[in-house]
Amino acid sequence: MAKISGRIRRYPGFFPMTVLCLILLYSPLIVVAAYSFNDSLSITLWGGFSFRWYLDVFFGLEADKFRDAAWNSLSIAFMAATASTIIATAASIGMVRGGEFKAKPASFALISLPLMVPEIVTAVATLIFFSTIGFARGYATILVAHIVFCIPFAYLPIEARLKGIEGTFEEAAQDLYASRWQAFRYVLFPLMAPGVVAGYLLAFIISLDDFIITNFVKGAGIETLPTAIFGAVKQGIKPNILALSTLMLLISVGFVTISYFVSRMGVKPGGYRPSAAIRKKKGV
Amino acid sequence: MAGIGGRSGESSSSAFAPIRAWLILPTWLIIGFFLVVPVGTMLVYSFLTKEFRGGVIWEFSLAAYDRFIFDRGLFGDEPPKLELTYITIFARSTIQAAAATLLCLIIGFPTAFYIATRPVSTRAIWLFLVTVPYWVNLLVRTVSMKFLIRESGPLNSFLQWTGAISEPLQIINTDFAVQLGLFYSYLPFMVLPIYASVERYDFALSEAAADLYATRWTILRKVLLPTVKPGIIAGCILVFVPSLGAFLAPDLLGGAKNFMIGSLIEEQFKGNAGNWPFGAAAAMILLSMVLVVLMIYARRQSGRSRE
Amino acid sequence: MEGEIEMPAVELQGVVKKYGEFVALRTIDLEIKVNEFFTLLGPSGCGKTTLLRAIAGFEDITAGAILLGGERIGDLPPNKRPINTVFQHYALFPHMTVEDNVAFGMRMLGAPRSEVADRSRKMLELVKLGDFARRRPDQLSGGQQQRVALARAMAPRPRVLLLDEPLSALDLKLRHAMRVELKQLQKETGITFVFVTHDQEEALTMSDRIGVMDQGMLQQVGTPREIYEKPNNRFVADFIGETNLFDVRVSEVGERGCVCAFGERGSIGCEATGRPLVGAACHLSIRPEGLDMRSREDAESPLGGKVEQIVYLGTDTQYLVRTPVGELITVRRQNAVADGVEFSVGDEVSLLPRPGAARLLAD
After folding, report:
1. What is the CATH T-level fold of the domain C242-361, as seen in this structure?
2. CB proximity B105 to A under 8 Å
3. What is the pTM of this model?
4. Domains of chain B (ranges, CATH numbers)
5. Which of A77, A187, B245, C167 has its CA 20 to 30 A from that of A66?
6. Residues C159/C84, Cβ–Cβ less than 8 Å
7. Which residue in chain C is spatially nearest to B6 when comparing CA positions?
8. How far from chain centre, in Å, is Cα B290?
9. CB C45 to CB B3 under 8 A?
10. Are C80 and C30 in contact, with CB atoms under 8 Å apart?
11. Which residues 212-271 on chain A approach chain C with CB closer than 8 angstroms?
12. Helix or strand or coil: residue C253?
C-alpha cells in the first residue's frame, strides 16, 4: 500500500527539475563568490586564489565610496526596520485584537498597498511628491520611503504570529491582577516576540535590498550599496564588485538563517524569563 | 454556546478594541501621506505640461497620454500619426512578464510538488534552500547572473571546455536573458503558493483516481491540477505583477533593444532630458494594468469563496 | 440556616447581558454563599459561560449589579476583582515555568518575594506537583496542566474561584479522579467555587447547589437532590437525567398533591410545584426508575402497554414500553434486586408510579 501511494506521489522528471531549479538559483552566486577570490585584473581569466579584491573593497580607491554607501545602507535599514516594526506591531495588535470594525478591510488594504503597487510606480510617485512639496532629496527622503514599503513586510509575520496566540492568555493575566499594560508587557509581547523579530529581520533585508525606489528619491551625492554597485556595474563588472557582492551575499544568508531559526523557535526553555523583569519593576 | 460561548472561546479577543484607532493610526498616516497622496500627485502630474529642464509647468495638458499613441513630430505641429514605440514597449513587457511567469511555472511547479511530497522533517530544509537566494540582494543576484551568462563568462567558458559548443552562446542582451533574470528575481513567489496548496492536497484523491483506472499523468491532469489550481494562479499573479514593472533584470540583462516599461519610466526622470508628465502617465498606465489584474484575481477569489 | 445573616459571597441582582439584539442573560438574580461549591449547569448557548465571564469581569453587563461580599464590583476591570478563573483550556503561559505561572498573580499584586516563593511552593505541593516547578507547561500532561491552572488561580487567595468547564479537556478516567480532587481542594481551602459545566453528572456529584440555566435564564436553583427529584419545570426535568413526560390535565388539587388525568385512560396522584389550577393542561414527569413494572394481569394502571425493546445496561435493564396511544415510555429496573419476574418483548405490562415519583411541572 505504501509503495502504491508512493508511486502516486512521485512523477518522473520532477526531481531533475528540482535539481535544475537549485542549479539555476545557486550557480550565479557560487560562481561570483568563487571569482571574487581571483587574483587577476581580468574577470575572465583565473589567476590564482587571493583576497586582494576584498582588501581593495576596504582599502582601495573606491573604499571611501563603498564605506559611505554601506553606512548609509545599514543605518537606513536599521532605522527603517525599527520604525516600520514598531508601527506594524501596533497596527497588528489593533487589527487582530481590536475586534470587528468597519475600517478593518480598508486598513488591511492600506497596509498591503506597498506590496501591490509596482515598485517603480512607488518610486515615481514618491519622487514627484517630494519634489512637489519642495522637500530636498537625500538621506531623509530615502528613510521615509523605506519605512513606507517596509511596513507590510514587518506586518505580515507579526500578524501571523499574533493570530496564533489565544486571547485567553491576556484574559488569564488580567484575571491574575495584571493591568492591561502588564498583560501586554509580561504575556502578550513575549509570546509575540518571535513574530516581531522575524518581521524586523524581513524589513531590514527588504530595506537593504531596495534599489529602484532609493535610486529615484536619493538625489545627488548620496549612495546606498545597491545604487553604488549599480553605478559601478554600468561601467562594466570589475573584480572588486564581485568581492563586494559576495560580502553582501554572506550578510543576507546570515540574516535569513537567523530569521529561519527565530521563526521556528516556539517558546523554548531558556528563552524569556519574566520573573526577574517583574521583580525589578516591582522593586522587590 | 453557539452564539456567545463562541465569542468567548474564539482565539482572538478584542482586548485592544478601545485603543485600536490609536494603534492603527500611524500606519494610516504614514502609508496614506507617503504613498496614497504621492500616487494622487502622480496622477495630477500626468495631466500637466512638461518643462524642458525636467519638471512641470502647472498647466493642464493631455500631451503625456497623447504622446503615447500619436507622433506629432518634433515640434508637435504635424498631423498626428499612430506611434507604436511605446505601445510596443508595453506589449513587449507584457509578453516578457508572461514568458517569465511561464518559465517560473515550468520549473517551479515540479519543484514545489517535489518539496511538498518530501517527508515533513525535510520539507523545511528544501523550502529554505529554494528561498535563500531570494533574500540575497536583488541587484547582487542580477549582477551575478549577468556575470555568469555574459559572452566571455564562466557559462560559455564551461560549455566550450566541455566541447558542447564551439562558439560562445549569445545569451546576454536577449529576450531569454531577461526572462532568466525575472525568473531569478521572483521564483519563490511561484514556488511558495503552489507548495502550500500541494501540501494541503489529500493524496487519497489520487489513490481514488488510481483505483478508478486513471494513470499517473491522467491523475495529474484531471484531479491534482484542478485541485491545486488556486495555488498556481496565485503564484502566476505574484510573478507576473512585479515582472511587468521590473527594472533591474531588463536593464542589466536585456540591453538597449529589450527596453521594458521600467526602463522607459526611469528614463523620463533621469537628468534634464526627461519628461515628468510622460513618466507619470506611463507609471499610471502600468499601475492601472496591475490593478486590473489584481481586481480580476480578487473577483475570482470572492466568487470562489461564495460557491 | 434562614434567619442567619451572612453576606453572600457573590450576589447577582437583575443581571442582563445583551449583544445587540441578542439577549444572552435575562434578569439573573442569584446568591452564592460563602464556602459553597456552586455549579452553573446548562446546555451549550444557555448563557452560563457569559455569566461566569461577567462575574470575572471579561464581559460588561447591560443592566443589573454584581456584588462581591456586599460590594458592587460591576464596574471594576478583571484585575481589580479578587476573583480568579480556571480557564477551559487552562491558558497557562507557555513562556513561563510552572512556578512562574503560579507566582504570576501574587507578583502582580506586589507580594514580597519570599512570600511569593513560599506560597507558590505550597500551592504546587497542594496539587501534588512539587517536583514540577521548573518545567514548562508544554512538558506536562493534560491532568498536570489542569492542576497547575488550579494552583495558579488559588495562589493569590481569591475570594471566589471561577471554573469554566475545567474538566472537559481531560479523558474520562482522569475526569472522574479530578472530580473527587476538586471537591477535596474546595473543602481544604474553603474558597467559594463557581463551577460551569454542561455535564449533569459532574454537577450532581460535586456541587453543594446547582443553578440550571437555559436561554439566558436561571431555571432552578437547588441542591443536587432537589434538582433531580423535584424539578421545577419541563426543561429541568428533561435536562437532568432521563424522564418520561406526559401531557395531562389537572383534575383535583389537594393539600399535599393533586390528581391529574391521562385523557380517557384514567388518572393518578402526583406532587406539584406551586398550586396548579384545576383543569389546566400540564406536563407530568416520571423518571424511568420511578415506574414499577407489573404484568398486566397483576395490576391495573392508566399507564401501560406492550414491551417493545429490552436493553441490558449492566446494573440496570431498560425497557421501552409502547402505550396504546403510541407513547414510548422508558422504564428502568435494577438487575440486582430483580423480583424474579422476567419480562420479554411483547409482554403486556402495567406501569405504576412509585410514591413521590410523579411530578406535575409548569411549562
Report:
1. OB fold (Dihydrolipoamide Acetyltransferase, E2P) (2.40.50)
2. no
3. 0.83
4. 87-274 (1.10.3720.10)
5. B245
6. no
7. C45
8. 9
9. yes
10. no
11. 266-267, 269, 271
12. strand
